[in-house]
Structures are given as structure tokens and as C-alpha cells.
Prior knowledge:
The protein is an alpha+beta fold. The chain has 13 helices and 7 strands. It has helices spanning 3-16, 65-77, 98-102, 113-126, 130-142, 151-159, 162-173, 181-192, 198-204, 206-209, 224-237, 243-249, 286-299, and strands spanning 39-44, 50-53, 59-60, 195-196, 254-256, 261-266, 270-275. The strands form 2 sheets. It has a 5-stranded antiparallel β-sheet with strand order 2-1-7-6-5. It has a two-stranded antiparallel sheet with strand order 3-4. Helix 6 (151-159) crosses helix 8. It is globular and about 55 Å long. The model has no long low-confidence stretch (mean pLDDT 95).
Amino acid sequence: MKYSKIIEDIYKQVLSEDNLGTAPTYIPELAQVDPNKFGVYLYSLNKQSYGVGDCEERFSSQSIAKVLSLCLAYSIIGDKLWKRVDVEPSGTSFNSLVQLEADNGIPRNPLINAGAIVVCDILLSILEDAEADFLNFVRELANDDSINYSVLVAESEKSVGYRNFALCYYIKSLGNIENEPIEVLNFYFKMCSLELSCKSLAYIFSFLANDGIRMHDRVQILTETCTKRVNALMQTCGFYDESGEFAFKVGLPGKSGVGGGIVALLPNHYSIAVWSPKLNEKGNSYRGMKFLEEFTAQTHSSIF
């Protein structure tokens, strides 16, 4: 299928409509981003790639990076991971404290804040230098050594991250954090500050559309079974309490971040990334959701 014309037409259509939603002001540094930025990039496994708009401009990946930290931990310790974090949709907001008490400090899944914090703790325990090793992992996936964290965004998020502090200390009190909470949180904020473009995101996530195999050197990052499980988690938990809506309207495994990015994939076919900073009331990119709904409708590409 020729994707370029479809992408261009939908991009123009969404661009011409009202850009509803609001910029995330609770992280001061993210509030500085131009709310009218809009980019799309598709990476097809048959090497037919296409981008439009601000697709090569880097932005704060935020929660999208949680999938990558999960993949790194999963590739090292395998199914032992699931003793520390569950695989169920949460049904509550991404930074909810309520379920942790009922679930004895085991977060519902690795893509909500509590779960990603536990994954960061695991990486701190098993890696020599978690910050450097995670960054290298992402650079290798992207085939791009220029990718980096944003110290400004990490510090900005840390300065107002009271709920994440509460989550981490609470999980520690329930025995599911091994390291010092401040070390875990420093790594967590750094991880979320990772700056990626739509182009690099679409390429990075292509291994999850390709049975866990990295495209440029055919290295197996995750086994086929583990890849299916990560994709299943993205399908059921990738959009917090809008995950059901995304499955209903778009029908692809994916992950959003409050930086306005969304990445999604169709196994064996493509990965696609969209960036537009204004968010809907559930914290997902307003234009990104509209674009992807229309894209899967017009290309008849859904896992269902």
C-alpha cells in the first residue's frame, strides 16, 4: 500500500481543523513548547518510509520511554519481571496511589508511573550504570548516537514531581523498591526526559513490529513471545484510562506521552509516530489521536 498520499491528506485535514486540547502546564519546561507543532512519520518494514510536518524535531518522549525501559529489563531478567509488576490494565489515572495499597505495592502494569518506577528500580539493581546503559540501549535501537536526555526537562519534572515521590516512597514502604527512592526517581525523571523525534520513534519501535528483531543489523532484542507480550501491554495499557478507547477507535498497540507524542505499530507491517503537544482530557495528544483514528480507518490496518 502507498502510505504517503494517505498520510499527507490526513495530515492536511487534521491541520485544517481546530487544535483543541491543552498544553501540559504542570511540567514547567513542557509548557514552553509551541502548541501548534505537528509531525507524523511512518516506518514501514518494507523500507517504505514517509514523514510530514515537524517529524524530525525532537520532543520530550515522557511515558513513551517506559516501553523502552520495560524492553531493556525484560530482555535481561525475562519473566522474573512479573513478580515485581503486574500486567493488568489499571482503569485509574497514570499516577494513582489508590490501587497500590490494595495490591500490596505491586503496580498494575509497567506503563503507569508506579510500574515504570519499579522497572527503573530493577534496572538500577541489574545494570552497572542505569542512566548510561539505558541511553546506549535506545541509541542502538535508533542507530543514532546523538540521542540524549534533556537535563532541563528532568530537573523541571523533578521540581514538581510530588506525586511520583509519593508513589516511590509508598512502594518502598511496601517492600517493592530495593534501591534508595531518590536514586530511583532521579533515573525515572531522566528516562522520561529522553528527547526523540517522530522519525526516530517510528524507527526505534520497528523492532516491536518485526518479531523483536532490530532492522539495521538483524539483532534479536526480544524473543518473539516477549515481543508479543510487550505489544499486548501497549494495546491494553498504553493510553492509561483511554486505552479501551484507543483500541476501539485505532486498533493498534501503542504508547502515548504527555510531551504530545504517540507511537503505534501494526505487527509485520509498520510503526508510526505522531507528535502534537496539545492534550485531550485524558492526557493524550488531541491531534495524534485524531490522525491515527483516521489513518487506520483509511488504510484498513488494525490488529482486529
